[in-house]
Design goal:
Helices cover 20% and strands 2% of the residues. It is mainly alpha-helical. It folds into two domains: 1-58 and 73-92; 99-166, no CATH class. The chain has a two-stranded antiparallel ribbon. Helix 2 crosses helix 3. The longest helix is centred in the first third of the chain and has 12 residues, at 10-21. The chain binds a DNA duplex through helix 3. InterPro entries: GcrA. This is GcrA cell cycle regulator. Pfam families: GcrA.
DNA sequence: CCCTGATTCGC
DNA sequence: GCGAATCAGG
C-alpha cells in the first residue's frame, strides 16, 4: 500500500502555519511534515495567503519575477516597521522534541546509528565547522568520538539524514504502520 | 553549488 | 486545490 499522505488535513495545515510562522524555510517544513516537497509547502503557503512572511529586515523585496509583464510601480511604500528589531529567529524547530544528545548512546545498543551511509566524513569537535552535522557518533568519553560532519540542513544542526531521525514528524499512528524503507 | 521563496500551469 | 517545473535571487 502506498499509504498515501493525507494531503492537507487540518492538522497538517496547522503545523504548516506554525512552522512557517516560526520562520522555518519551506524545505525544512517539508521535511518535518513529511510526505510533501518544499514546492508543495510553498504552494500551500501561498494558497493560504501566508506568503511573504517576515522579510530579512529592510528589503521588502517585491516578487522578483514578472514574466511577460512590464513594470508595476504601484505599491505605495507603506514600509512596515519591523516588530522586533532584535530577533534573529532562533532555533524554533522544537515542535517534535529534538535530538537525543550524546549521553544517551552510552547504552549498549541504543546508539543512533540506523544510518548506514558511507560515513566518509566524521569529524572531531575541533573540525566541526558551521553547517556540519552535529550528530554524535560513538562514545563521547572515548577519544574516537566523532560527529557526523556531513553538510547540515541550513537552520538545523543535522544533515538531512540525521535530521529526519531527530525530528520525526508527528506520524499518524492510527495503527502504526512503519514500513522500513520508503523512498 | 548550496540554498531561498515566487509563479506558472497542467492535472 | 495541488504541486512539479521553472524562475529569480542570495
Amino acid at each position: 500500500m502506498t499509504e498515501a499522505v493525507p494531503s492537507w488535513t487540518d492538522e497538517r495545515v496547522e503545523l504548516l502555519r506554525r512552522l512557517w510562522d516560526d520562520g522555518l524555510s519551506a524545505s525544512q517544513i517539508a521535511l518535518q511534515i513529511g510526505g510533501v516537497s518544499r514546492n508543495a509547502v510553498i504552494g500551500k503557503v501561498h494558497r493560504l495567503g501566508l506568503a511573504g512572511r517576515v522579510k530579512p529586515l529592510g528589503q521588502v523585496a517585491a516578487n522578483g519575477r514578472r514574466k511577460g509583464d512590464e513594470v508595476e510601480i504601484e505599491a505605495s511604500e507603506t514600509v512596515v516597521i519591523v516588530e522586533e528589531p532584535t530577533v534573529p529567529e532562533p532555533p524554533a524547530i522544537v515542535t517534535h522534541r529534538p535530538a537525543p544528545d550524546f549521553p544517551l548512546n552510552a547504552l549498549p545498543s541504543a546508539a543512533p546509528q540506523p544510518v548506514a551511509l558511507a560515513v566518509s566524513e566524521r569529524v572531531t569537535i575541533m573540525d566541526l565547522r558551521d553547517s556540519m552535522c552535529r550528530w554524535p557518533m560513538g562514545d563521547p568519553t572515548k577519544p574516537d568520538f566523532r560527529f557526523c560532519g556531513a553538510r547540515s540542513i541550513t537552520g538545523l544542526p543535522y544533515c538531512s539524514q540525521h535530521a529526519q531521525i531527530a525530528y520525526q514528524p508527528a506520524a499518524e499512528r492510527k495503527r502504526d504502520r512503519r514500513v522500513a524503507g520508503m523512498r
